[in-house]
Amino acid sequence: MSGYLSGVLAIFCINLIFAYGIFVTAAAGQINLGGAGFQAIGAYAAGWLGSTMGTPIWFSIVAAALIAALVGFLISFPVLRTRGVYMVLATFAFGEVVAGFLLHTDVFGGAMGMVVPLHVELWVLVVSSIAVTLVAFYLMATRLGLSMRAVNDYEDAAIVMGVNVRAVQVAAFTIGGAFTGLSGALYALNFGFVEAQYFNALLSIYILLYVLIGGTQTAWGPLAGTVFFTMLPELFRVGGSARYLIFGILIVLMMALRPEGIITRGLVRGLSFRGGARGG
Amino acid sequence: MAAEPALTLDGVTKRFGGLAVTQDIRFAVPVGTRTALIGPNGAGKTTLFNLISGVYKIDAGRILLDGRPIQDLPPRKRVQAGLSRSFQNIRLMPHLSVIENIMLGQHTQASDVRSLLSPLAWQRKSRWRAEAVDSMRRAGIDVDPDAPVSGLPYGLRKKIEVVRALMSRPRLLMLDEPAAGLNPRETVELSAFLKSVAWDGLTMLVVEHDMSFVHDLCDRTVVLNFGRMIYDGPTSGVQDDAQVREAYLGSRRVAAKGAGRVA
Amino acid sequence: MTGFAARDKGLGGHSRNADAPDPRRTRRRGGKRLARAMSDPTGVAAARISLPAPAIAAAILVVLIGLGVAIGGKVIAHQVVSGLLLGAIYMTVAVAFTLTIGVLNFLNFTIPTLFMLTGMAAWGLLSGGYLTLAGRGAWLAALACGVAVAVAASLLVERFTFRYLKMKHGDATEHAIPLVSSLGFLIIFENLVLITLGSDSQRFAVPFAADLHVAGIVVGVPQLVSCVLAVAVVAALSFVLKRTKVGRALRTIAENPDTASLLGVDVGRVVPVVFILTGLLAGVAGALFTVNYGDVSPFMGDNVGTKAIAAMVLGGVGSIWGAIAGGLVVGLAETLSIQFFGGDSVAMTVWGLVLVIIVLRPKGLFGGAPIGKGKM
Questions:
Q1: N or C: which end of chain B has fewer CB within 10 A?
Q2: Taking a C-beta distance cutoff of 8 angstroms, is the pair C169, B150 a contact?
Q3: Count of domains in chain B?
Q4: Is residue B233 part of a domain?
Q5: CB contact under 8 A, B105 and A161
Q6: CB contact under 8 A, B74 and C38
Q7: Chains that touch B (3 or more CB pairs under 8 A)
Q8: In this structure, is residue C32 part of a structural domain?
Q9: Is the CB of residue B105 less than 8 Å from the CB of residue B136?
């Protein structure tokens, strides 16, 4: 595989895992515009554990994901006091605080970034992204996933069905944190270098776009969104700004014409009917 | 030996601002009975439902479920204690399918970790799904279980919501205007269905305007007017009660008097 | 989290159907939030006693300025004036944000871009020689055109974000649709400018340097005019909201998003007004920034955007006066802290404060009365 292609594939895998991290909370009705902050936590944690503490790679990755999950769990309590636009602002603020902290304190290298002397091969990324995708599909197929989707639709009715809405939402943030942190860890260990400037507002915005444009109704959404955003620039072989201009136009059109996203439940059902056998 | 009533309201009062929306409500619903809650618009029926199910907090009084006070419990705990309700404006989850909505009703029985984390959709043989499909069929809901609820006719969706409310095997089933929007045939079907699912010990409290439905289904009726209870007794006696007539017909009589004087 | 059943000062409000909870409201465990919110549809009870925000804001400002000048003398006084100017700009943009959220529950990410469009369009017209007819007033004409561009762009955003809004079966993330759309427009506008005008920072020449000397402090005429203009614009907006028919219509939409048309508001004609106002506010702020700092770039909106959002939160989301107070405070704080601490950790502390306030006291530090019902 050429160096260019393997680079694209690496980015794709990392973004896919990242997207699933944001998807999990969105599927339960919460918009997280601070994704970059969680990814940064995972990246710096893995990098620091691996290089400074000298832990084995697999340990660094798992620990980084768990740390990000813990942060997700802890931050969910204050954040879940908000809804809607306020939650967008709160999560955005969180992302900025994390990025600002990493940039302006020298514990982790500050503006100079942190070199990560360890390396994971591409296959680790590919396997991880497949695993995360399967876990996400599985989650959506369980009663927990059903509860999440119910909370997304009608929170007050879900309560009356006996769903522990708060627990479901906290779980969504925790699992989302784990996935997002994992994507950061893999990024750090594959790329070899992390800098705080990378984990900025624009990154959070883009990953949220991946998820919302892909569709939050099914676990196919993040897949579609990541493909859309990673592959499309390759199709439009125009230079720099023009490419992003087209992007922007597509985003506006999508929201105007198909706001529920590329993949909806209806679409999946329609496609599976046409596919024939509907299983016993 | 007298069993505890399924539901006891003891002096339940709720104020919004300065307005007492329900005032000192007292009645009991014996186990296994079906009681109707009626009254003119604005009488406080849905408010009372919201108080019982925990959406609102009461200002005074007690609410007892099987003799246990529940007025301080959050809604989720009340559901776990055996309460279940349907909504006046249908609250089916629009992005879920019929069967998923119904399975949601099973939640109180399935909230242990194992049930939460085992897949519902992949093995069609899931016990929860089988139960839900069974309930669907017995209720006469003959659509594809995986169909989205949003496209279905109104009467059918009402029925699905009732089935969903039944899935938790509640002690007290509260139905908020289940017959609203149904045509006469559907109304009769619904009444028959509700009578058929009345297992031993299932108690129903039904808010309704359709009096023929009420007469058919409920042996007892409580009448509210302006937040106060004005009648609590057999359904057959409702129409003869003076206070009830006053509440429903009073204004018309006054108007008639006035017209009479002019003429 | 403060209750929003509190009727703000005489803005009135219509009670909503108690059976149809607003899906945008917070739900806490056990529906307590919902219950509390819906338990006061007539709005009589629980009138939150908050001192009028302008009074608090003015008091804080006077104390700060007084302290600063007393301690630091002329240098500080100069910084204070600069801080107020910066604050005036932040305040104007913050008001645009808060108005849009208050009335439409819409976090409009294009606002900083409109700010940028004004400056860049003005520069583009001026340097492209399109305004030679205006002679010595070309710079002013350019700025006026810049503001017009901002308003036009804002209306374009309205056309594509709000017209297509009504989802058949919404869910908790449907409020994000216009947000995503605005992000799309942000990308479009920024890249349009990059393509047509390049990515460099440019100088915008303003042909006067008259300075006033007040009590030994140098105050530039542009600075003074800017402050006055910003205050005037915002005061006019406040007036429009409170006294005019349109303003009443806007407040009705803010408080009754689902039933406004039933209450007699021609929603299709009133909503564009919000976007026009947004364009004006962002445009005027952009023009003021251009005149006073002389530099425009395709990225000039970024910093202002984040500060304005912070200012809005400080003052309480949805509150006009809160945004005013917040903007001035942020401007002052930024200028003074750069003087004393250097610019680095300002952003982090500001956002930390935003997070804490949003979560603990969404009414903001100044307790300004929100336009709508405070959609939590």
A1: N
A2: yes
A3: 2
A4: yes
A5: yes
A6: no
A7: A, C
A8: no
A9: no
Cβ neighbours for A168, distance < 8 A, ≥ 6 positions apart: A28, A144, A147, A148, A151
Tens of pLDDT, residue by residue over C129-183, are: 777 777 777 888 899 999 999 999 999 999 888 764 555 567 788 888 889 999 9
B56 plus B178 within the same structural domain: yes
Please state, as a whole number, how many other Cβ atoms lie within 10 Å of the Cβ of residue B258. 10
A265 contacts B104? CB cut-off 8 A? no
Number of residues written out for chain B: 263
Domain match, B154 and B219 both: no
**3-class state of residue C207 by DSSP:** coil
Confidence band of C4 (pLDDT split at 50, 70, 90): very low
Residues of chain C contacting A93 with CB distance shorter than 8 Å: 313, 351-352, 354-355, 358
Tell me the β-bridge partners of B19.
B16
How is residue A76 written in tokens? 């969910």
Strand bridging mode C211-214 / C202-203: unpaired
Give this prediction's pTM: 0.85
Inter-chain contact C181–A249, Cβ cutoff 8 Å? Answer: no
Q: Mutation target for B interface from C22, C167, C169, C174: give the one with most B CBs within 10 A.
A: C169
What are the b/e assignments for A230-239, b being 16+ CB within 10 Å? Answer: beeeeeeeee
Tokens for B219, please give them. 């042996």
The pair of structure tokens assigned to C106 is 């819409």
Q: Do B59 and B188 have their domain in common?
A: yes
Residues of the domain holding B22: 1-82+170-263
C296: β partners: C202
Helices A165-191 and A143-153 pack at an angle, to 10 degrees, of: 110
In a domain, C17, yes or no: no
H-type alpha helices, chain A:
3-27, 35-51, 57-79, 84-104, 122-141, 143-153, 155-160, 165-191, 201-214, 221-235, 240-257, 265-274
> In this structure, are B187 and B255 located in the same domain?
yes
Co-location of B190 and B257 in the same domain: yes
